[in-house]
Amino acid sequence: MKKFIKIAGVGLTILALVIAGVLTWVNLSSLPTYPVQAIDIQVPKDSLSIAKGRKIAETVCAYCHRSENGVLDGRMFTKPDSDFGEIWAGNLTHHANGLNRYSDGELAYLLRTGIKRDGKFLGPFMLFPTMSDKDLGSLIAYLRSDAPSLQASEAVHTTNYSLLAKALMKFGALKPMTYEGKAVEAPSNTNKVAYGRYLATSNYMCYECHSGSFETNDVLVPENSVRYFGGGSPVDDMDFNIITSPNLTPHPEHGIGQWTYEQFKMAVTSGIRPDGRALSTAMPRFALLDDAELDAIWAYLKTVPPLGPVTAKAEN
Ligand code: HEC
Ligand code: HEC
Asked: Mind listing the domains of the chain with CATH numbers?
């Protein structure tokens, strides 16, 4: 018996050493790198396209990249004690520490795949594989413009991924999208429902927060996401309180089936619910969207299959 305990003890010690070795490797070796490409993207110069790019940049990108200074020079996106560690959304202003590092083609490639200029994957936070080439070009045109929120800031931020995040990246559970090299087109805005779907999924990321969980979202075929538009994702507000995203399906009790278009518009653009409550900062303010866009998103949401109440408790 004594001998057995001794052997078992040696075995456990070896196992512990092996585990410690793997953890040290995960923690200290560098993250995987992927080939970087510069996509051949058309960046328009006309004011209409730049205005479209502005809408995406000042709502979607700004939600994560706007700092307290008002410019898009980056903010802390997840806290040091979060599962993924301390992650900062970087500097997008006209500075060598910001977007000046990127060519237009490299930026397009980053937005399509998540692969940074240094070849590392930045995590599944901002992937736009289905945004049309035209809108992607317009977005880049705006990001190169002299808009006040892009004025040079020298801010530098350092992300410290947690051991878990590193392990997920190293073992390939979190990895970039493959760049298909195919042309991506948006549906015509004369098809209101199809256009609304495009806006709600490919441009303004509504479904990403308003489905069941960030882990089960399907970026390429959003309808395959668990509880598509049925809510339940844990979303951090700007003070890192977790807010469970609400159900936007047309369910009459649990969704927004009884809302009017005007109530919807007010909530989305100004953050005021029909009962007068102000939505938390977990919900971006889409004040720049015009009636045609809001009306299309509204028409599309009415066609989404209604889902019952959010039951899962939000966890971080
Ligand atoms: C949900 C949050 C979120 C949204 C939305 C978002 N980003 Fe980011 N972005 C991040 C995070 C987090 C990082 C940094 C991750 C890291 O440190 O690797 C980042 C990094 C970047 C980088 C820097 C890469 C580098 O090499 O340092 C660029 C450029 C960028 N984002 C552009 C954009 C643009 C353009 C948009 C809008 C289309 C956008 N992001 C929307 C969270 C977001
Ligand atoms: C970054 C995550 C995020 C994105 C992106 C997002 N939302 Fe939200 N939204 C939320 C959260 C969280 C709430 C709940 C906030 C609260 O109750 O304080 C919310 C609330 C709402 C509400 C109010 C619903 C209710 O029952 O109170 C509507 C309507 C809404 N969002 C529509 C949209 C639309 C349309 C889009 C895209 C144009 C969108 N959201 C994009 C996170 C998001």
From this structure: 47-170 (1.10.760), 192-301 (1.10.760)
Q: How many residues does this entry show for the chain?
A: 316
Q: Which residues of the chain have pLDDT under 50?
A: 314-316
Q: Which atom of ligand 2 is nearest to the CA of 256?
A: 26
Both structure tokens of 172: 């390939």
Whole-number pLDDT of residue 314:
43
Rg of the Cα atoms in the chain:
22
316 Cα–ligand 1 center, Å:
20
pLDDT in tens, 9-27: 888 888 888 888 888 878 8
CA dist list (Å): 85 to 76, 244, 258, 300: 11, 21, 40, 36
Nearest atom in ligand 2 to the alpha carbon of residue 60 is: 5
Question: Residues 86, 80: contact at Cβ < 8 Å?
Answer: yes
Distance CA 249, CA 156 (A): 40
CA of 238 to the centre of ligand 1 (A): 16
Contact call for residues 282 and 243 (beta carbons, < 8 A): yes
